[in-house]
Amino acid sequence: MKVALNRPVALDGMALRVEWPRDRGRIGITAADGAWYPLVDSDGEPGLLRPKAPPGASLSGFSLGGNVPFRLAGLTLDRDQRTRWPWDRGAVLRTLPAGKGVETREVRFETAAMSPLPGMRLEVLDDRGSSVLYRVKP
Questions:
Q1: Residues 15 and 49 sit within 8 Å (Cβ to Cβ)
Q2: What is the rounded CA–CA span in Å between residue 137 and residue 122?
Q3: How far is CA 34 from CA 29, 70, 123, in A?
Q4: I need a labelling partner for 81 at 20 to 30 A (CA). Which of 25, 49, 51, 99 fits?
Q5: Residues 6 or more apart from 22 whose CB is under 8 A from it?
Q6: How confident is the model at residue 130 (pLDDT cuts 50, 70, 90)?
Q7: Is residue 127 part of a domain?
Q8: What is the pTM of this model?
Q9: Would you give the distance in Å from CA 66 to the centre of its chain?
Q10: Structural domain contains residue 119
């Protein structure tokens, strides 16, 4: 799985919500320069993982992988983000084919794509389930 960002993001503010068999493997992110950062438990919310990186480290894209199967259930780009996914932040997630007949998928977290009318501005309030709750901005 790859994530492209339209601007660099500080790793000390990034968090990923990943489901995986913790007792059987490891998971982390690889930056474009090849640097690998393991994901470790966050001090706050259970299930939230943060890259273990030196202070001041940032990146504008990365690959997520490990030696065990996993499921990405959220991506936070900074500590102020209140949703599970980075809406209108320029993030693009691309899945990689896992086998024959499996297609690459691309997800852009853009509220404009959900808008029922062109030019309507939306704010995502909750995105924890299989649907997204938003409000129309004035």
A1: yes
A2: 5
A3: 10, 21, 35
A4: 25
A5: none
A6: confident
A7: no
A8: 0.86
A9: 15
A10: no
